[in-house]
Amino acid sequence: MTGGPPPAGALAYALSWNVARKSLTIAIVVGCLLSIANQGDVLLSQPFSTRIGVKLFLNFLIPFTVSSVRAVLNRPGRE
Fold it and tell me: Quick one: 30 exposed, middle or buried, by C-beta within 10 A (0-12, 13-18, 19+)?
């Protein structure tokens, strides 16, 4: 793995319909599981707040990002 910038097409590939759809599916499943495991008790016992909202957002953003990066790193034609 090199330390240079990603190729110009990496972002376009990550945001292409097929990759984004798969990443979104993974993010929804994993994000729901993480939200229940990490914030379930808080969601049931406290009113919704910005702090909880940010944590929930990150529970979905992180798996989406990880899945997209893995797709870019494993894309066809990458040397």
Answer: middle
